[in-house]
Amino acid sequence: MELPRTRLLSVLDVATERGARAAEVLFEAEEGFHATVRRGKVEDSGPHRSEILTVRVWGEAGREGAATGPAAMSDHLVGVALKEAEAADPAADAGPIGRLPLHTRGLGIDDRRYQGIEDQDRLDVALDDERAARGADRRVQTGPFTYRDGRSLRALMNTEGVVHQELGTRFTLTGELSYGGSDIELEGEFTSRAFAGVCSLPLGATLARQAKRFAGAGSGPEVAAARRVLIPPLTMARLIGILGEGFTHEAFATGASVWGKLTSGDAVMDPRFHLLDDGALPGAWRTWGFDDRGVPPVPLTLVKDGAVDRCFLSIAEARSENTRPTGHEGREGVRPGNLLMRSGTRSVAAILSEIGGDAFEIEHVFDWGGVDPSTAELDLPIIGSVRTSKGNGEPIRGLRLRGNLVAALGQIVDVAGDTDRWRHVDAPGILLDGLEIVAAD
Question: Is the pLDDT confidence value at 220 over 80?
Answer without folding.
Answer: no
